[in-house]
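User: Once you have settled down, look closely at the record that follows, taking as long as you need, and be ready to discuss the fold:
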Amino acid sequence: MTTATATAPPCVAHLVSHSTARLQHSRAALLLHLNAAFRTKKTTKNNLSSRNTSSTIAAALPFELSPPPIDHDFLDSVTAEGAKVSEEGIIETFENDDEALDAFDNGVVVMDLSHFGRIRASGDDRVQFLHNQTTANFECLSEGQGCETVFVTPTARTIDIAYAWIMKKAVLLMVSPETCGNITEMLNKYIFFADKVEVQDITKQTCLFALSGPKSSEVMANLNLGDLVGQPYGTNRHYNVGKLTSYTTGRKECDHFALGYIKRKAASDGDTVIVGEKIIGTVVNVPFLSRQSPPPVKNSGPRLN
């Protein structure tokens, strides 16, 4: 599950997705040249295709916290691309600062912001609760919108500035890494017995990336996120890339085979289906499987002479 949000320049979009490991990077190494990031994807394309190729786009789906399995650890992948990673799991540099800064001004860069904290507020009273705990007017916002807000102490001292994104069943907050734990603890402290609110720190279950640069809109379109381009600040959507249970190439490079689930009423042998936005597939009977009928049930009733 991925949540994409539109923000003000220079960051065009935030991408919040599941992760099986916490990804932490320093602010000094936020610029990752897009070509390097795409090379990482290409080297693992076949392995990832079995889980990410089939896709349909749906808006405002529930936020599932159970991360899907992945084939490769992200930090291992970026290390193979030349990144220097600290013992704390923070990417310090790619040794390509000049190239990255040029892409920031003239192309596009991917910024990994996974070290920032992410807090999920759910429950029927979540909007009113956050309206009372922060400076933003949450009651005027609706699903798919977002804003900046400020957490303050009882004496009006600033704790942190946060991003807030209103989703169908929750509000996602992005806060500074240093304050995430304290804010989560503070919010849980102010939940009264009758309040229908649940606050969770989901930093370890998710990762966060941002696109920045004049060509970010083109990349968003290629990622099927084009409906966010040009939208108001804080606009967000849920996107769901689906699941193929397995995938393999054929004897020829142009042959691709995958297993997936299709309702019988939706398609049958020989029908054409769309996988994602551009991939056309043909439904075929599953090979190498034998279909057997259950043995007849013997009548064990009394025999009549």
In short: The first strand starts at residue 2 and ends at 6. The chain has seven helices and 18 strands. Residues 22 and 204 are 5 Å apart (CA to CA). Residues 20-63 have pLDDT under 50 and may be disordered.
